[in-house]
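Pasting as-is:
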Amino acid sequence: MAGTVSRLGQVLVVCAPSGTGKSTLIAKLREEFPNFGFSVSYTTRAPRGEERDGQEYHFVSRDHFVAMRSRGEFCEWAEVHGNLYGTATAPVTEMLGKGMDVLFDIDVQGAKQLKKTFYKGTFIFLLPPSREELTRRLTGRGTDSEESIAKRLANAKGEIGEARFFDYWIVNDNLERAYQEFRAVYMAGACKPELRTDVEETILKEWEDDE
């Protein structure tokens, strides 16, 4: 029996302290693999500038958001500066069912929430090579005050303390090497047996039927 081998989509969750190079690595991955699914988050904050409902965010009232949360419709949510933000489970599940991978660039607390719903996902933590190097990178930006840098370093300590929660660790001491590791983890995650449902339904079943 012949057929096209495909798979379910992969949830790829990436966390890292500020200054680790997460945005650069994610941009490189999305450039090489441009077909990631994107879920439009919900928020209670007002639109800014030319933001449009359903494009950058679904802009909803606090009561609407809280009602969705009470019904268990979010796979992750957080309150930031008095505004609520959340990712609805249903559209993510729909994309995964269509074989689309969904990438989450998120903080540690959000990753822990996602683990409860998408426990088969691939959870990656990016690390700086040292405290000294992270300090150098944050200082070298020239965009943050000393107070801001101190706050980011304090946050980094707490985030790195949660690194053991993740499936994979990647140390970004060399961008190209870190990207090759990042890419390899992503590609390996796509080969997990639990995502290759039609392999079981086609190739494996074909051999079992011969018994």
